[in-house]
Design brief:
The chain is α+β, with helices and mostly antiparallel strands and 670 residues long. Helix content is 45%, strand content 15%. The protein contains 23 helices and 24 strands. The strands form nine sheets. The protein has a five-stranded mixed sheet with strand order 2-1-3-4-5, sandwiched between helices. The longest helix is centred in the middle third of the chain and has 45 residues. The chain is extended, with a radius of gyration of 42 Å. The N and C termini lie far apart (111 Å). The C terminus is likely disordered.
């Protein structure tokens, strides 16, 4: 007999369903007592009056959260059977196992109330269709949601608090390991550490992941990667693998929490991770891990006309400038464009900057600087030696693998042919890889260049140090050696274009070794005179002096002495003065005093103004014969009758209705 007055025969004629669910796979594996209690609800159904054969168990949602219905096939099938009137009661150890948010909970209550389905747990039986049952179940759902919110808040607060101290045990990248006491240190394998360092050093030199991948493959170098069990595996480098390495802040010693954000796809409902830009990272704790890429060297000096490549920095955003040789040597800052799609920060001519900094270097040069330049090139050789050291370490590992494969083959029982054949194949493969690596390394070591300045040349430089400016222009130094010599005294150079992208001056600040600085504003060529700083002042001065009767040459010399210059020159040219003067119709010679206005006629500029076109449009067609016209001997100008017929004929020519104009004749189109 039913133990509850709510259970009616119509309920007993339907099936009873036991809903079993645990929120995570961890609970499924470890919370076995909870599973036993939930499956024991089958006995509870029998006590309520259902026969054992009429009791079903739905456990398809084990390991899934009840905060959403997405992916919970068991719950979805259960709701469908309730709607069809096939279920008389739903039993769960806790009623809120069915849903953990009020939205889905009340939808289930409405569905059960409409279909006449009861809900039962270890505490009692409830009718969602009655006021009291709905009230009790509603309170259970609200309390459950509040409980989940409180527990989640406490858990997240604990995680965030630990993350703010940098003590949260996040997954570490390859090359970093966590000790039992929680301290993070570099991997104990020397080859792993050296190979990761080599990746960052090579990226500083080549400036591109694709070039680093190509360089490593040319050198037959592999990189360490962790498999899903945490074991180091040596694999060929790819852009994706190196990209994940160089973009990981842990290699810079920083603990970062909140680099990604989980977004639920609208179509599938699945959560997807999206990487956030650095300025949106939630927590950053610097100097928490031992760093790998804190190498702030300026790279190895290489060939190329740009002498300041590697030590030139942008004065606006602070990033290092790169070089572009198309259209002449140019320095440009494209870091923001590459990272965020913004316009190029600065684009500066390279030659005048190099010449000015080189001149300062020659003025500050002392014999001691030659020793420093020699040390710089010796460091370049040391960096290349580090590359070959990495290859020798890899060779040592291959030799160990071959010896280990041999020992395994020697220890196997010869009668076990299947295992012996496989071990023999592994031994042969290891020997083949070892021989290939030895041959490549021996070949490359024979062709290893040396960049350091030879001892005899170094001694000669000590003797002829004062003659270095003369030797600089000769072929004695390569571009790489010139760069190395400059770096012996110069730490870095910061440049900033004054006046925006069209400014005519570059502010240069040279930071010397030891911290001393030299600063100057360097004038550069620009496209338009109007963009030059002080253009309006210079134009007013030209007009004032021209009206006083001074010549163009005298005005140009005076302006140059006061620091003015033309748009593309280092001085003010007489032609620049003449252009300004004539544009304002200031004439200072008789040859320029011919009348520009002739009664009854229009000159080219006057006619162009009437037609609202450029005067060059008319001049070009006079020169190519489209407009037949002859200069007037008195005014030395092309003259056209000042009447409406002239305007009408020119408009026809402009509209293409006639092909030639002049001599009173119109040549119509065929």
């Amino acid at each position: 007999m039913p133990s509850s007055d709510l259970i009616q025969p119509r309920h007993l004629n339907r099936r009873a369903v036991i809903y079993v669910r645990q929120s995570s796979q961890h609970q499924v594996l470890n919370n076995t007592e909870s599973q036993r209690l939930q499956y024991a609800m089958k006995q509870r159904a029998c006590e309520l009056g259902w026969h054992e054969q009429d009791v079903a168990v739905v456990d398809d949602d084990t390991g899934r959260s009840a905060t959403t219905t997405a992916g919970r096939l068991g719950f979805q099938q259960l709701a469908a059977q309730v709607a069809l009137g096939e279920i008389g009661v739903i039993l769960a150890y806790e009623a809120t196992r069915l849903a953990r948010n009020c939205t889905h909970w009340y939808q289930l209550l409405d569905l059960c109330g409409h279909a006449g389905c009861l809900i039962a747990d270890r505490d009692g039986v409830y009718d969602p269709g009655s006021v009291n049952g709905r009230l009790l179940l509603g309170l259970k759902g609200a309390i459950s949601e509040l409980e989940m919110h409180t527990l989640r808040g406490r858990l997240i607060a604990g995680i965030v608090s630990k993350a703010e101290r940098g003590e949260l045990a996040l997954t570490l990248p390859t090359g970093l390991v966590r000790r039992d006491d929680g301290v993070v240190e570099k991997h104990p394998d020397q080859e792993v550490r050296d190979r990761i360092l080599l990746v960052f050093k090579t990226l500083l030199e080549l400036k591109s992941l694709a070039r680093v991948v190509r360089h490593f493959r040319d050198q037959h170098l592999t990189i360490p990667r962790r498999d899903r069990y945490g074991v180091i595996q040596w694999k060929r480098p790819t852009i994706a693998s190196l990209g994940s390495m160089v973009k990981n802040p842990a290699y810079a010693g920083a603990f970062v929490y909140g680099r990604t954000r989980s977004l639920r796809a609208e179509s599938t409902g699945k959560l997807r991770q999206r990487l956030l830009p650095p300025n949106e990272w939630r927590i950053v704790v610097r100097d928490r891990y031992p760093e790998y890429d804190r190498n702030k060297t300026r790279g190895v000096p290489r060939d190329g006309q740009a002498l300041l490549h590697g030590i030139l920095y942008c004065g606006e955003c602070g990033h290092k400038l790169c070089v572009q040789y198309k259209g002449g040597t140019q320095y440009l800052c494209n870091h923001l464009r590459q990272q965020h799609g913004e316009p190029v920060c600065q684009r500066l001519p390279g030659t005048p900057i190099d010449e000015r900094v080189t001149r300062w270097f020659m003025e500050a040069l002392t014999p001691a600087a030659i020793d420093l330049s020699s040390q710089t090139l010796a460091k370049a050789d040391a960096q290349r030696a580090a590359l070959f050291m990495a290859r020798r370490q890899q060779l040592q590992r291959l030799r160990y693998a071959a010896n280990r494969a041999e020992r395994q083959y020697q220890q196997v029982d010869p009668e076990n042919r299947l295992i012996a054949a496989e071990l023999e194949r592994r031994w042969e493969t290891a020997l083949r890889e070892l021989r290939e690596a030895e041959a490549r390394l021996a070949h490359d070591e024979q062709h290893l260049p040396v960049w350091a300045i030879p001892a005899d040349l170094l001694e000669a430089l000590h003797d002829i140090g004062p003659r270095l400016p003369e030797l600089w222009e000769q072929a004695l130094f390569s571009s790489a050696q010139k760069k190395a010599v400059l770096r012996s005294l110069i730490d870095k150079v910061v440049v900033h274009r004054v006046g925006g992208r069209r400014g005519d001056r570059i502010h240069i600040r040279v930071v010397w070794r030891g911290g001393a600085t030299t600063t100057v504003d360097l004038p550069i060529a620009i496209g338009r005179f109007a963009d030059r700083a002080g253009a309006a002042e210079m134009e007013a001065t030209v007009l004032h002096l021209a009206r006083e009767g001074q010549s163009d040459s005298d005005i140009a010399a005076l302006l140059t002495a006061h620091g003015h210059r033309s748009a593309r020159g280092v001085t003010v040219l007489p032609s620049t003065v003449r252009t300004i003067r004539l544009r304002h119709r200031v004439l200072n010679r008789e040859s320029q005093s011919h009348p520009r206005r002739v009664k009854g006629y229009w000159t080219i500029p006057q006619l162009a103004e009437k037609l609202n076109i450029s005067r060059y449009w008319i001049s070009d067609r006079i020169h190519n014969g489209t407009i037949a016209a002859v200069k007037d001997a008195t005014s030395n100008c092309y003259l056209f009758p000042a009447n409406s017929d002239t305007l009408r004929q020119f408009r026809k020519l402009m509209e293409g209705k006639i092909t030639r104009l002049g001599g009173g004749k119109e040549h119509q189109d065929a």
